[in-house]
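Can anyone check this?
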Amino acid sequence: MRVDLFDFELPTELIALRPASPRDAARMLVLRGAGETLDSHVRDLPEMLEAGDVLVFNDTRVIPAQLEGRRGEARIGATLHKRIDLRRWQAFVRNAKRLREGDPIDFGSGVSAIAEARLPDGSWTLSFAGEEPVEVLLERAGQMPLPPYIAGKRPTDERDRSDYQTMFAARDGAVAAPTAALHFTPDLIDRIEARGIRTETLTLHVGAGTFLPVKAEDTDDHAMHAEWGRIDAATAERLNAARAAGKRVIAVGTTSLRLLESAADEAGTIHPFEGDTAIFITPGHRFRAIDGLMTNFHLPKSTLFMLVSALMGRERMQSAYAHAVAEGYRFYSYGDSSLLLP
């Protein structure tokens, strides 16, 4: 499909620079079926769901994966986006024209790496020196990798270390937050569970590729970056049992949705999964594993706006986003939410 079909006008003042406080005070646009549209709030989510529904969260934890360093006199910026092994990460590099294979980069605070190899997509393999786990090095020298549409408007600060982390964060490895879950609080989860709504977790380490623009003119020509994910056997079994009992599985965030769809077979059975996924969901995709999605508002012409258009219909989502703009909803990672129930 033509990428320009997924474009829309967005006033820059609607890009949220901080999350709502408290988190569940964020607004939520609810779309049900073919036509119902409701303005609500995240705190009202328990009343929007039914007993037996299952909310599936991503328990990945964002690491401070953005590094600023030097190769000689040249300033080098690196955003890690995918682990290769214990000491090597794939990274997008700023000022990469000043790098040669084998060059050392000093990131300060006793953290350094060798620019090992330039990859076909323009990213680099960085091999970190020393024996400390790379995650420990990042805590010392790294910054939280805020999306460029926030980082371009204000500097990252200490508050982002907690703001850009969900309450479910347990497994280090993401370089972008699963932002739909940023809206949840312990009190909201208590009220959800009190209504008989169940929760499950999986892990998808979100990569920086989620921020990359779609430069192709046709969706067939866009290559997705792979991300590592895992669904254990017990979780898959419980999700399959819920759907077999006629209950709904609702993904909290496009990351949870993409991993569930990657793990499901043609019959809709979710299997245990561990490995990379580069699934690209566009209109025409037949959803096999999920019955709904809670997600934030996405960028024009992004793969994620294509995903929600696949779930609800492109014209429906264009209309919903026009409504959200007119009503002043806040967009992107720190913005408001939507609940999509086809």
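Reply from J.R.: I decoded it. The chain has a mean pLDDT of 95.
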